[in-house]
Every structure is written in structure tokens, then in C-alpha cells.
Amino acid sequence: EPEVTQTPSHQVTQMGQEVILRCVPISNHLYFYWYRQILGQKVEFLVSFYNNEISEKSEIFDDQFSVERPDGSNFTLKIRSTKLEDSAMYFCASSFRRELFFGEGSRLTVL
Amino acid sequence: GDSVTQMEGPVTLSEEACLTINCTYTATGYPSLFWYVQYPGEGLQLLLKATKADDKGSNKGFEATYRKETTSFHLEKGSVQVSDSAVYFCALRLGAGSYQLTFGKGTKLSVIP
Q1: Confidence category of residue B40, pLDDT binned at 50, 70, 90
Q2: Which of A23, B9, B64, B96 has the fewest CB atoms nearer than 10 Å to its CB?
Q3: Interface residue of A42, A53, A94, A96 to substitute, partner B, most B CBs within 10 Å
Q4: CA-CA distance, B50 to B48, in Å (whole number)?
Q5: pLDDT tens track for B60-85
């Protein structure tokens, strides 16, 4: 069964460093998303991406964040200069139409 | 703003016990409602959904009914199994123009033999 895959599963980084989280969406899907869950809190929407551009983004998704689909298969989330409060589980998702399929998540720990 | 509130966990049940996980929502307009499940080591998976008032979503023995009058979408199962141990997330999505999901915090369920 097709699935969304994410790498790395866990990354530890120092505050101020750049981090790139990678996702391989399901191959025929058209819409791509990033969500995050800070420990003990809700899963929060960050951004959606369609037709090579951002279609929606939340207040969390500020200038420190960017997304890219560099090669037609990967979908990446970049955090330019990580802060302690960026520590969270980051979930990638993709959809053909309305049903979202999620990856297992990438845990980011910022020290 | 729009929000989802679900009961705090963790919930521990014996096999074959009845399960109810409460979920209430606040939203402008008429959202679609969802339950997602996350099994250990896996991603979030759609468990069931309902798109309008009085709709009942069902899957794998789980059910939830969209109650507009109480703004609720409680998850129920009559007899849980060990394999149901997971984290359950209630979520809503607003109208046709948005693909954004708003989630609750999640409720961890552990079922013991």
C-alpha cells in the first residue's frame, strides 16, 4: 500500500542551526502538507502546498519556515534558524483530493 | 477561532470493554468531522468521518455521530481489542475551500488483555 515516508525519524540540533525535514508523498497525490505537534499539545497545521506554491499557511509558518518540492518527488520543510520552541513532531501529509495520508513523523529536538 | 476539545488521556481498558472518547468542537460554519488514529510507530490514519449533521461515520467497529445540537463527535466502540491500542485524534475541517485540519490533543488508549 502506498505510504508517505519521512526522514529523519529523529533529529537533534543546536539552537540557531538550519534543519531540513524531508518527505516523500504518495506518487499521484497533488496536495502536500506539514503539521506539527509540540509534546502534550495539539497537532497544528503549518502549511499546504499545491501546484508548486503555498496554498494556505498558519500564523506559525513565519519567515523562519519554507517549503519546497525540489524534484517532483520530495517535499521538504526547512527551518532556517531553529529555536527551542521548534522542538516538536513534524508530520508530512499528502492527498489526491480531500483525504489526507500522513507520514510517521519526524521528531525534532532543539537544544 | 475553530477548535477541537477531546477528553484527556491516557485511557486504559480491559479487552472487550466499551469505549467512549468524547470530542466537542467550536467552529464557524458547518465543518466536516474526523477521527484519526495513530498506532505505535506509524503515521496518522483516517479512521472515520462525517460531513454533515446526523451523519454517522463507522469503521473497524468504531462509530461516531455528528451531533450539531451538542457540537459533538464522540468516538465509540462496543468491545475493544488489544490491537486498538493507539492514540486517537478528533479533527475538523471547514468548508469546501480549505484543506486545513484542526486537531484535538489526542487521547492515548491502552487495552490490556
Answers
A1: confident
A2: B96
A3: A42
A4: 7
A5: 999 999 999 999 999 999 999 999 99
